[in-house]
User: Which sequence fits this backbone?
């Protein structure tokens, strides 16, 4: 098992901090999976990206959402609260027909 | 027996024609002693030889004329008038002594960190011959998704992508969310130098392309770690800013990542070729394995046809001990040990590295040469030229799709089979 910590300041500079500015959010990684971070693929022909961002934001409590491209959203949950986990988030977002997949963010390495 | 010889000869010419250029409307023949060619009106001597050049109708297929003449009882042999190119040697001081992947002399590579095992003369990508045809890939934009690029480096600065006022530092930094993708690791600068360090500038190394546009996309931090999201953002930037090729010298290990796969498909729709590393064992532990059977590495193992996966060879053209392989996932091999290139320490610093990360940009450079020389090609044409225009390496037969190592000269000359043609049979 591998465990990595990336500084909170660095992390927030990556994803922005629209909901929880100043929160000390350490990134923890277990077996390549980054905790509290999720990636959502949407069908942007069915739903406008900015509208999708708002709907995801309101569907998942205590999180921040950033559209990293027109068809992919990045969710980060509040480290001060219990992480709902992948299955709960999948369930919450399943009501949106324009959501195509939900996964955890993963760590990638140069060679 | 003669018929068999003629048939074999025809086959060889047919094979060669995939790679060779020849003068249209001309065939060279050698006549048997005391024979003459009377059926052809336009025959001239080649001075200083006993060969003749026969002019044929320019609309007539040269290979058909060669076959016809080869069957003529007065002809000893017939062949096209092949076009040859000069070899071009750059004046970069590291070229001959250090860059074995471009020119294997065979040299001991100074400062080797991988086993220094000089191979055979010519065990390289035939860069000099390719440069006789083209060195300039300045019509091509290569997005390097990595640890950033030291864009002020003496061998890189002239070949950085011009992002205008919107992107004054030649790309974007998705790791730190800024407009400055300066390299704080070195890996991205090294990769960039292999693709496109300025050639023939009397400094350091030369890239496979002497001129090119390197788009710096920083998705990885100083520790070499990035994430699905920083890579997706980087690919999105490449799509939106006209990149032709993406260098992906990184790996995500494990199950298929649907989001990254979606973005690879978006790149495919945009006509972008993604060249990906096979990986150095699991999590860079250096113990090579079969990615078809073991943990898959992505983007290498994605099945979209715009992904070209590359493994690494050593100086003897043997697969490097660390280099992952896979008969259905890993497409081709390239030099990947003891590779000198630019580094981020300062603007004139160079370093030696080994890895499938280093093999990947060799393939990217060759792809850029092919595309620059054939602007009408699609990503699939370029991929096929890089894969199948390579040279056969017997040991790669069961460990890669093509069984080949990249070859710049053959790839640039590779002629793709025309698509979209319809044959109409009339009675």
Assistant:
């Amino acid at each position: 098992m591998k465990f990595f910590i990336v500084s909170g300041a660095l992390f927030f500079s990556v994803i922005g901090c629209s909901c929880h500015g100043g929160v000390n959010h350490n990134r923890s990684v277990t077996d390549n999976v980054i905790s509290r971070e999720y990636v959502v693929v949407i069908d942007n022909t069915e739903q406008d990206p900015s509208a999708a961002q708002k709907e995801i934001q309101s569907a998942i409590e205590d999180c921040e959402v950033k559209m990293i491209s027109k068809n992919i959203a990045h969710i980060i949950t509040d480290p001060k609260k219990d992480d709902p986990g992948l299955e709960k988030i999948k369930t919450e977002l399943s009501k949106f027909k324009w959501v195509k997949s939900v996964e955890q963010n993963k760590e990638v390495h140069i060679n | 027996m003669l018929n068999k010889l003629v048939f074999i000869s025809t086959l060889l010419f047919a094979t060669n024609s995939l790679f060779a250029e020849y003068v249209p409307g001309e065939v060279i023949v050698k006549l048997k002693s005391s024979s003459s060619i009377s059926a052809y009106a336009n025959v001239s001597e080649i001075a200083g030889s006993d060969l003749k050049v026969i002019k044929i109708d320019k609309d007539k297929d040269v290979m058909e004329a060669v076959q016809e003449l080869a069957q003529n009882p007065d002809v000893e042999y017939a062949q096209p008038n092949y076009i040859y190119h000069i070899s071009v040697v750059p004046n970069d001081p590291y070229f001959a002594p250090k860059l074995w992947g471009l020119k294997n002399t065979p040299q001991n590579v100074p400062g080797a960190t991988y086993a220094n095992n000089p191979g055979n003369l010519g065990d390289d990508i035939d860069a000099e011959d390719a440069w006789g045809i083209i060195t300039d890939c300045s019509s091509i934009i290569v997005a390097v998704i990595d640890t950033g690029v030291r864009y002020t480096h003496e061998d890189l600065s002239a070949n950085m992508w011009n992002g205008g006022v919107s992107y004054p530092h030649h790309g974007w930094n998705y790791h730190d969310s800024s407009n400055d993708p300066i390299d704080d690791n070195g890996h991205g600068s090294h990769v960039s130098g292999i693709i496109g360090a300025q050639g023939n500038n009397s400094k350091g190394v030369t890239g496979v392309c002497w001129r090119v546009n390197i788009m710096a996309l920083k998705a990885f931090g100083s520790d070499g770690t990035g994430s699905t999201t920083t890579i997706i953002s980087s690919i999105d930037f490449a799509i939106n800013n006209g990149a032709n090729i993406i260098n992906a010298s990184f790996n995500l290990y494990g199950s298929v990542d649907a989001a990254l796969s979606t973005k690879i498909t978006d790149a495919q729709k945009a006509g972008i070729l993604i060249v990906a590393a096979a990986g150095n064992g699991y999590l860079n532990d250096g113990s090579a394995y079969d990615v078809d059977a073991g943990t898959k590495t992505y983007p290498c193992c994605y099945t979209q046809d715009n992904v070209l996966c590359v493994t690494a060879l050593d100086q003897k053209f043997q697969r490097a001990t660390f280099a992952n392989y896979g008969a259905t996932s890993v497409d081709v091999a390239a030099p990947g040990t003891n590779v000198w290139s630019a580094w981020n320490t300062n603007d004139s610093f160079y370093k030696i590295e080994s890895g499938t990360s280093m093999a990947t940009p060799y393939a990217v450079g060759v792809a850029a040469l092919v595309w620059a020389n054939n602007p009408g090609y699609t990503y699939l044409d370029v991929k096929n030229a890089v894969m199948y225009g390579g040279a056969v390496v017997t040991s790669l037969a069961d460990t890669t799709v093509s069984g080949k190592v990249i070859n710049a000269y053959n790839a640039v000359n590779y002629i793709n089979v025309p698509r979209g043609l319809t044959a109409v049979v009339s009675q």
